[in-house]
Every structure is written in C-alpha cells, then in structure tokens.
Fold each of these.
Amino acid sequence: MIMDSNNQEEKPSLVNQVLEKIKSGQIKIRPKIYFILKTILIIGGVLGFGVLVIFLISFIRFHLRASGIWYLPGFGFRGLGIYLKLLPWFLIFICLLLILILEILAKRFSFVWRRPIFYSLLAIILIALIGGFIIEKTPLHPNLLLQAREGRLPFAGPMYRDFGMPSFKDVQRGVVEEVIENGFKIRTFDDQLLTIVLIRDMRFPFKEEIKQGDSVVVMGEREDDTVRAFGIRKIEDYFRTFERFPRRPGR
Amino acid sequence: MREEISHQNVQKDEEIAYLVQSGKVEFFGILIERYEEKIKRYARKFLADHEDINDTLQDIFLKAYENIESFDRKRKFSTWLYRISHNELINALKKKKKSLPLFDLDVFLPISLHDRTLVENIDKKEIGQIINQCLDKLTPKYREPIILYYFENLTYQEIADVLEIPLSTVGIRIKRAKEKMKKICEELEYKL
C-alpha cells in the first residue's frame, strides 16, 4: 500500500488495483477466437469493399460507354465540358469513399502500415481500376441491365434503370436507321427515333461515311426529336458484342 | 505468492506474458511492477493531471490484460505494451480535445532514411536532459517519437511498431522534432 501525499489517504498500489479488478471478474481475458474472428472480419471487410468498389468502377465505365458520355472528350473542349457535367459524380464519390474505407481497413495489417500511405493507396486504386475495367469487358452489366429492364433484378434494379442507359439532352447514342439528305436518323437504345441534322460549322466531321447500321454518338442540341449535331463519332457497337442486348419486340 | 513470483526476475517479459496467457493471472503483477514507472513516465509527457495519469495507467494495464491473448510471443512485450499505451493516451488526449491530426503528410509520402544517422550521432543523455525541459511546447505528433527514442530508449523499428508508421517516417519525425525543439530551446535560452 502506498500513501498519496496529495490527499493523505491510503490508496492501493497499481498492482493491487489491477489484480483486484481481475480477480473480482470485472476484467476478463478476451479469448483467442475473438482476435481470430476480428482478423477474419477485417479480411472479409477488405474483400467485400474491394469487390464493391471494383463492381462500381466497372458499372461507371459501363454507364459512360453505354450512354456515349465516354466518347465526349473526343469532341474538344465543348465535349469535355459536357463530359465533366454528365459524369456520375455521386457514384464516383461513393467509390472514393469505399477506397478510403479500404485504406483504413488495410492499415490494420503491418505489411500495409510499414509502407507510406502513398503506396497502399496507389495499389488499391490500381487494383480497383484494373479490376473494374476487366469486369466491364464481361457481359455482366449488359445482362444485369437486361434483367433490370425486365424487372428481374431486385437488388440493383433501380441503379441500372437510373444509370444504366440514360438519355441526355446533349449526347445521343444509337444505331443509324436511315441516311437522309442533311443527316441521318438514329434509333436510340430507349427506342426513340431521332433525326440528326448536320450543321455547317460542325467541328468534328466524321472521317468515314455513315451508313445504315452504324453505331454513333452524337453531341448536339436536341429539340423534340431533332438534334442539331456539333459532333458525331462512329463507335464500336458495344452491345452487339454481348448478343443479349434487349431488342424491343416489333423492331 | 507474488513475492515468490517477483523473485523470478530472470524470466523474460515474453515468458511471463505466456504464463498469464496460460491462466496464471498473478504473474501479470510482475509485468505491472516492471513497467509501471516506465509507462507512468511516458504518460506524464502527455498528461499533466495526476489523476488523469493514474487513471490512464490503470486503463493501460487493464487493456493489456484483457488483450493478452493477442500478444505474439515472438514479438517484444515492451513494444506491444507501448502500443497499447499509445492508443490509451490518444483516447485520453481526445477526451481533452487534444487529439492527433487525422491526416499526416509524413506517413503519406515515401521518405529517405539517410537523415537518421544525424540524430544517432548526438549524445542521447545530454540531449535528453535539455529536451525534457522544452518538450511540453512540442505537439504530440513530434513529442511522442522523441520521448520513445530519448527517454524510453526504443529503437527506430520499435517506435515504428508502437506508432504503426513506416520506419522512414520515424526518422523524419525525430529530425523535424529536433529542429522544432532547437527553436523552442533557443527561445527558452537553452543551447542545443
């Protein structure tokens, strides 16, 4: 026992205080399984958030390519401006948040915190981007979009319906149905028939001839079903690659 | 019983920790006796209030006992205990709204280790006496590695393990802390 000089009261030593609490059962040793489960939970969290961020990145790229936004920077500064405006910022923010959570979880492991955050963050971002781009090359998203449209996708249906293939005022994506005198007509993926009118000062005239059946992205001002095109670009037919793109009946 | 046990001073901390893990609770008393003064000295550098220090000290050892199964005998017990102390001191500082910054550029960027030798060449005892008097003026981020290195005699690697930061960051923090200390000491008319 020691004497506290401040209040002149006898206080038990630290050893006695701690052992007292241990013996009275106030403090118990956490079993080894607690720490094992904790580690498993962290690994599970890293894998879970990792899969989620890869899925979201692949979805963002799918959304950009399917809607035609992906091709806008090719239309110069004006295209770049519209591109930045139309980027799915909310999804990008969610991805950044998930990457931050991943970094925090990964830092629980010594092989991560022993190196500067710069490296681990870079590794997470690279893995997420490469993984996302690989997944985007598979038929996963077109298939899920198809299921969402048919109402067979309960968990991410609204996300696919909202982001999957939206129509924007400034950018249109579709397949050429008919070539007319001053432009052509395209069928969009949401089954609208739009007349594309080529304006004289179009900065990016297509180098190749546009013919029926070509997939194109058109940047321009839309009024009702007519689009005054500032830029046109012939693109690969993204959805034909997967052969399961939903074709509407009667078309 | 504990008197008998305390005679077994020859035993390493890690072996005693293993005995506690095996259910021999009373051996934990030896570890407290061995580290009470060291951890108290460490805590004093962050907390001024006598009651706060004692409460935190008790929390540290209770936490150590509670988590003793997570201690890996292949590692040093002292480093493990200082890690727990570091976490508890952060909690204590948070309560006093003096928490450490959330983001730290020192940990973010890769830094060269070459500055380390500069610090090691200085007489640790001599510098320790002076910096003790200027230490309070340093922020906890720089104060902690200085304390662990000059007062607790931990190696760079051990400090890295306690603070869970890269080894190079330990070097740069000690170097920067020393520069800041120099300024502070000059203001207080000490020569460093």
Note: The interface with chain A takes residues 2, 20-21, 25-26, 28-29, 32-33, 36, 50, 54, 57-58, 61-62, 65-70, 107-111, 160, 164-169 of chain B (CB under 8 Å).
Amino acid sequence: MVGLAREGDAGAFRSLYEAHVGRVYGLCVRLTGNEGEAEELTQDVFVRAWERLSTFRGDSAFSTWLYRLAVNQVLMARRGRWRRERRILLSSTAPEAPAPTPQWDNAMDLERAIATLPDRCRVVFVLHDIEGWPHADIAVEMGTAVGTCKAHLFRARRLLRKVLAP
Amino acid sequence: MNCAEVRDHLDPYIAGHIEQHQRVVIEEHLAECGECKVDLEAARSLRRVTASLPRSVVPRRSLWDGIESRLAMPPSRSRWSKWVLPIAAALATVALATATWYESPGTGSADAIPAEVQRLIAAYGEAANDLQSALRPDPLGGSTEPVAFTAALPTLETLDLAIAESRSALIRDPDNPALQHLLLSVHRKKVELLRQVATLDAGGEE
Amino acid sequence: MRVLSRGPLGLLPLLLAHTLQLSAQQVDRRFAIDPDASIRIMTPAGSLRVVGWDRDTVQITGVVPRASSLFAGGSGAAGKMGVEPFTETADSRRVTLEVRVPRAARVWVKTISAEVLVSGLIGEVDLVGVTSPLTVIGSPGVLTAETMDGRIRVEGTGGWGVVRVRTGSGPIDLVGAEPGASSAGGDVTATSVGGAITVSLDRVARARLESVSGAVTFRGSLQPTGALEMESHGGHVLVEFRGAVDAEFELSAVNGRIVNRIAKMTPDAGLGGAPVRFVTGKGTGQVTIRTFKGTITIGN
C-alpha cells in the first residue's frame, strides 16, 4: 500500500489515510488541546506525509514514521508560540481547573484536564504517559534537555492528580 | 519522611521503581496519613485512566477533502519515469524474499541453526536491504535508465530461488555445514550482485 | 560519361557512401605515455579492442558516429579516453575503437554493451560491463572482469596471474595454454549466478569456481599444494584431472549424487549431504566441492 502510494496512487494514499487518521488526529487533539487546531494539523500532517513519502525508507513501520511526522508537525506549529510565551506556570493550580467531580474514572474528565495543562507539560504527558515515548526521544523532539522533560512530566501528573482529587 | 517527600516519590512507588528501604518508609507513612493516602489513590487512578484512554480519536468531521485538494501534485509522476513501477515491484519481491528469512521468528529448527550462521545471514540481509534502498530511483536526480538493474533482474530471481531452497533444506538439517556454507554463499552472491548493480547504475566515471 | 550511363540509380551507392562518411568520423589520435601508466577507457557500446604494444604511446583509431564524440588525452602516468554520451544508442553501437597501449599499462575499461577484446597486456586489467561480452587474450598480471549479462572468456598464453571474473547470467570460459605447457596456473576466482563456468588450466595454485545455477567444470591439474574449490547450488560439477592428483578431497552433494572415478567410495557415502572425504597420492593439495542439487563427477 505504501509502495503504491509512493508511485503517486492517490487511492492507495487514501487507504493509508483511513487507516491512520484516528491515531494522527488523536495525537494532534491531545497535544494541542484544541479540536479545530487539531483538525487543521491533521490535514497538514497527511499532506506533508504525501510530499515526503519518497523519504520513507521502510526500515520502520509506516505508522511509526507517520506518527513521528505528526508530532514534529504539531511541535513545529507551536514552537513559535512557545518562544513568545513569557509566563511560566509555577503555581500548582491549573489556569482553568474544571470543577472536581467525584467520578475520577471518567476518561472525558481526564481528557478535559489534559487539555488545560500548560503546553509543555501537556506535550510531555501525552508523549510519555499516553504514547509511551522514552524521555530521550521527547527531549529531542522538543529541543530541550531530558531533565527538563522529566520536570514537565512531574508537574503534569501533579496537576492532573490535583484536579482529579477531591 | 514528610508528606511532601512522600508525594514526590508516589509515581516511582506505584511504578515499582524505588528501593526496598524507601518503600518501607513510604508505606509506614501512608498507613497513618489520610491525605497522602488520597493522593496515592489519585495517582493510581490517573495511571489507570490514562492507560485506558483510546489512542485513536475519530475527528468530528471528515478531513479527507481538505487533504485531497492539496495533493494536486503527486510526488512521483512529475519526476519518475516509466520504469519505476517494474523496479519497485522487483525490489519489493527481492525485499520480501530477504525479509521472509531475516525476520522469521524462531520457527522450530530455524533456531537450531548455529548462532554464527544466523548472525552472518542477518548481516547479509542488512547489507542487501541497504543496497536495495540505494537502488531505489532518485526522484530528484537523473532519470537515466537503470541498465544494470534491468539486466540483473533474472539473476536476482535465480538467487532468490536458490536462497529459498537452501533455507528450507537448512531448517530441516540445521547442523549441516555444507548446507550452511551453500546458503551463506548464495546470500553473499546476492549482496555482491546488488553492489555491482549499484556501482554500475550510479553512472559517471567511477 | 560512365557515371551518366549508369542512370540516376547508379549514383545512389555513391551518395550513400558519402552520407555514411559524413555521419561518422574516422579517429586517429595518439599521445605519449609512461610504460606503466593508468589508462581509463569509457565507451558505452559498439566494439573496443585494447592491444598491448612495445611503444610508450597510446594510439586510438576507429570510427565514431557524429552523434557521439570522442575525447582522449593524457601524459605521464595517466591517460583517459571515452565516447560521449555514455549511453547505449543506435549511434553509440556503431562505435568501433582500437586502442594500443604500452604492454605494462594498467587498463581500466567501463562499458555498457561494447564487445571488448583485450590482448597483449601484462599489467593490470580491469573490465566492467553490463551486457558486454569480454574477451582477454594473454596473461595480465592482475585481471578483473565483470559483466552482468555478458560472457567472459580468458585465453591465457603464458603464466596466469591473479584472475577475478564475475558474471550474472553469462558463461565464463577460462582456458590456459596447451596442456603440458610449463606455465603456472595462477590464482583464479570465477563467480556466476546462472552462467556455466568452464575452466581448463594446468598447475593451478588456487582456483575458486562458484555458480548458483550454472554448471561448473574443471579440467586440468593442481600444483602440488594447490587448492581447488568448486560450488554450485543447482548446477552439475565436473572435474577431470589430467594425470594423477595428490590431494585431500571433501565432496558434499546435499541433494545430488556423487560419481567418484578416482577413489573408491562406499555405496551410501555422501547420503543427505554428509561430506565424503578421501585422500589421493600424497594428499598435498586440497579439493573441496559442494553442490545442493547438482551431481558431482570426478575423474581423470
């Protein structure tokens, strides 16, 4: 399928899209916390994948390659904003903490809580705790040190626990 | 340990990544501290719910149209010429034949083949794959016809057939040194052939 | 008057000849060079003869169609020449070149489909083609020849040096001087995938002959401590020694037969690919033969 898509077969590429859009969109929406932005980014990711298909060497699974591309795309889009961002959240309260509910097992509440995390904390949490990336890979993608990533993760978990705790 | 310290160690504690003496101290504290116990439950809950989150999220609307309209210029058609498909197909076959051996999980007596032999076969496999990637037509570069590759296709088929035969025989008789030698020999020839093709089709003077 | 009496059609052959001459150019170039200079020749198609001579000069003669162009030049330790563009076309197939070089020159030839004949060289010779038939007459010190689809033939007139030849589907023929001539057999490696390998050499020091589906044949003799290694996955292996041979033998035919005419074998020897080992004479040499499916026949 990948091979056919590489030959310029848009139909084959569509099949690849159908197979992977859920994961890519899932990544984007969790990393950005914003559905509209995630939709645009998802489209950007697939267009970029199409353009760069010829660089896919086949030495890893196609999905792995695609998801890395997605993460890279999202972070690139956000990098500008982070550079301009001056305020660093040190306080232990999240900006818009949703009212704590007694149902900690509700995945929707967690999703909402993740969306309200500070940007960097959210990215590290999603990539490490949800996507299972090792710290080293996250650090490379974010352009920071491993220690900084760990600190972000630590803070993310604290904030989420606090939000979920009664 | 005070509450702040215990909370700092909650994550590694849950994950089982702390020393025995620390575990004892934490559990003693938790037995007596209601707040920290709640915190522990929250941490466990967080882990549990996080693990249950679906990786895949369906977008609320179809995004394909927005993508398709931007695919106006297929990456291949503008630069690759008509022989790309046959070569891609041939490479796929070659890669498949190679991959079938190199990636086959331990299927019975395949494991009985001496480690040294397996290692060599894996090395040849890597080399073959590297060369195949190098042989993939350069979409940016020249569209010179890969004369050597075309000439080599029937030879590659002969090689893959021989590899398949030797391999089956070796799996049935893994300790046979003659078979081991023959299989490695054919693998080596395949890598040498691909190298030859790569050098010839690289064009230029060297 | 005579021309007119032939009528209009009579002029046609003359016109044609003239046109052909216009579309091709005669080549005649030469330049001085060191006796052991490195000479590189690139010609995509047609025919190429490289001849060693006793002058310290490179001389190029032949015919090159006007659609192609020949560049040539050099001095001292290096010379270079080639036909451009380096592609196989109807025009480049009409190129014929004869290049004379000092006998001890190091010659490197790159081609796609040109028929190459090299003779009279005693230095290093390196030939690379894709579908070219390659023929070497003489005894270069070091000979390397590769062609994917073409055949290779080497006729050694004197002692053999180091020979490394490789084909894909084309046959390989290595022929030494007449049997009994006092020439050393050299160090020979011949590899093919589909092409048959046929070697006729006396007093071989080392020979390694391998094919995948081609038959491999050796006729000749070994030096007292010579080593002969032959292998074919699917082809038959045939060995005929000229005279007696002193060697340790190891024969393995995994799924094939062994026909042994120089030593006695038990009826079930070699079953299932178990190697058959025996010694002849003083056992100073070494003969190793392996096949997967082919029959091994050995005799003298």
Note: The CA atoms of residues 27 and 71 of chain A lie 7 Å apart.
